[in-house]
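Q:
Just now I want nothing more than another pair of eyes on a protein record. Here is the record:
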Amino acid sequence: MSDNGGSAVGLLSYETLVHAVAGAMGSVTAMTVFFPLDTAKSRLQGVVNVILTTPMWVVNTRLKMQGVKFRNEDLHQTHYRGIFDAFSQIIANEGVGTLWNGTLPSLVLVLNPAVQFMIYEAMKRKAGRGGRKISSAKIFLIGAIAKAIATTATYPLQTVQAILRFGQYKSDAEGGGVMGSLSNILFLLMDRIKKHGALGLYKGLEAKLLQTVLTAALMFVVYEKIAAVTFRIMGMNKKLKH
């Protein structure tokens, strides 16, 4: 019994407490110092993910559009028997590089979450100004607005991304590489505006907002709940009313 008591005293001793606090401070310091590197790593992971998955998205888009009746006579039907046949036909008829159509818009769209979080944090700080508590309902609303703004701001690029992936477009852009891709994007944006007006860049936006806004809003509410519990366990105050 005395051994158990001694173990308990040892566990709660001043020396143990000092080591625990020192370890916690070390972790916080390391996280603060290496956070920029972690952020850069996340962006790099996003770039690698885009490069590796773009061929699958190109094939996915082609298969989705198969069987669609086009009003534009310049567009023609494709006939793929499946994923592997689509890969084979695209490489044989259009070249391997076609599998990476839309890569540049996809790389730019990696910034979408950054825009979303920037708007969210700015709105949250404004809502909590003067020590005001922010309810979960307000967090939900702020998260929804932030995602809606980020999605609306980047949606024209998503439209161009889909056109590039589908592949059946005419472009006056010359050259290859980044400059050629940038010229293609600018040409398609201007061509879309010329044919359908500025609103033509936002066709299908309603469906995209329904798909992403509610998910993002719920994610922010869950995030704040988890953060509040974590801060409470750590003995820190977080001004968020649930």
Confidence is low (pLDDT under 50) at residues 5-12, 17-38, 238-242. The chain has two domains: 1-97, 101-242. The helical segments are 2-11, 14-65, 83-94, 103-109, 112-127, 136-166, 177-196, 205-233.
